[in-house]
Design brief:
Number of strands: 4
Oligomer: single chain
CATH class of the largest domain: Alpha Beta
Number of domains: 2
Shape: globular
Largest sheet: 4 strands, parallel
CATH superfamily of the largest domain: Uracil-DNA glycosylase-like domain
Mean pLDDT: 94
Strand content: 5-15%
Order of helices and strands: HHHEHHHHEHEHEH
Low-confidence stretches: none
CATH topology of the largest domain: Uracil-DNA Glycosylase, subunit E
Distance between the termini: 42 Å
CATH architecture of the largest domain: 3-Layer(aba) Sandwich
Number of helices: 10
């Protein structure tokens, strides 16, 4: 990168080194679009503390471009340094999914990550481990007791869930790639819109060249759902839902139907 790239904060430069090579040119072009839309934006990031840190901003782009089947877009990173990983709703503070405590269900750290908790419960309803009208208390304790049994075939860690999703072709993004305590998420999402537009346009172009099916856009929450209106999203199949921090997400029939065939809770041998 030359010229405009001088405005890019050092942490973002380092983040570029973590992406799969198939994305390098796309992300550089996307960053240039962000800068051209608002030349002061990256300077404002340089002056703010933003998440994710530790050069994890583009971590989701570890999946090769040709392997992307679904683009899952949430609202923004978790507002905690240990939780914001660069992957949509994957909380870096979480390791084990299941509580080891008597009468416990999901682990305390999963329960703290509201979006992840509700996503897990939706998957458990979809897989038949939970009934939709009973997703707490004794019902969850029974599920956890079963899940911890090695013979259950159920994943044990968040890393396994993340890997299952990536192996199914999920690009796990957010409408805003950053979180700042002093800036509303919707404002940062507007600043990153040219980035997402560039990524979507390039994905569509690549699939047209290969005469392959375009990825499915999965949009969670009001900020992400606004992407339905941009020209670059018109040609994509789109599935929308409320954000998983809403309890109603657990019973969302379209999400249950969409995720059921993927068996994301099943441990890969």
């Amino acid at each position: 990168m030359t010229g405009w790239s001088e405005a890019i904060p050092e942490d973002i430069r380092l983040s570029l080194q973590q992406v799969h090579p198939s994305w390098s040119a796309v992300i550089e072009a996307a960053l240039q679009q962000v800068h051209e839309r608002d030349p002061a934006y990256f300077a404002s990031l340089h002056k703010s503390a933003y998440l994710p840190d530790q050069a994890r901003l583009f971590a989701a782009f570890s999946i090769p471009m040709q392997d992307v089947r679904y683009i899952l877009i949430g609202e923004g990173p978790y507002p905690r340094a240990d939780s914001a990983t660069g992957y949509c709703f994957m909380d870096g503070a979480v390791n084990r999914l299941w509580s080891d405590e008597e009468g416990g269900g999901l682990s305390k750290k999963v329960n703290r990550a509201t979006s992840l908790r509700n996503f897990m419960k939706m998957l458990l309803v979809t897989s038949g481990h939970l009934q939709q009208d009973a997703t707490t208390g004794e019902a969850m304790a029974a599920v956890a007791s079963h899940a911890r049994n090695p013979a259950s075939g159920i994943i044990q860690t968040l890393g396994e869930l993340q890997q299952n999703m990536i192996s199914q072709g999920f690009l796990l993004l957010n409408a805003s790639l950053v979180f700042r305590e002093d800036t509303p998420p919707a404002k940062d999402a507007r600043a990153w819109l040219p980035f997402l537009q560039t990524v979507l346009a390039r994905l569509y172009q690549e699939r047209q060249t290969e005469q392959a099916r375009s990825p499915v856009l999965v949009l969670w929450g009001k900020i992400a759902e606004q992407l339905r209106q941009i020209p670059e999203a018109v040609a994509f199949e789109k599935i929308c839902a409320e954000h998983p921090y809403n309890l109603s997400f657990i019973g969302n029939a379209s999400m249950q139907e969409f995720f059921k065939p993927m068996a994301l809770l099943k441990r890969i041998a």
